[in-house]
Amino acid sequence: MFSREESAQLRKEFWTSFGKSFPRKWLLYNTKIKGFSFKFVADRKKAMVCLDLEHPDEIANKLLYDQLLALKNLLETDYLPEVIFDDSYELENGKLIRRIYVPHNQKFSIYNKNSWRDCYEFFVDKMPQFELFFYQFEDFIKQAI
């Protein structure tokens, strides 16, 4: 087991190494839609690329999610066939959000450096597809709110 400091250092090293290995400007929080952001997730058991819907207004949050559900078939067919829609995804802190995500299906732990490279390649393969989908349908998505 790792101490808190060792754990923090490994996480920092993981993300720093990812940024240096694959320097690129990612969309992430720059969607210009409140509470609508793309995220990379990597922890001790899993990795994924996500689109999180956390708009403070629950009605707007639901409208955005419903708008994306209307595009689900296109997202699965043309961009990310393995995408998962979850309208009540529970974060580690217990908060429920709406999350659309693609899980990394290989064995991964942020504490195992041997699994990092596969995860990085997964990130750079899947996130651009997510971003491309967003750019293609950005105007339609924004119509929800």
TrEMBL record:
Domain DUF4268: 10-136
Pfam families in UniProt: DUF4268
Cited InterPro entries: DUF4268 (IPR025364)
Protein's name according to its UniProt entry: DUF4268 domain-containing protein
The organism of origin for this protein: Asprobacillus argus
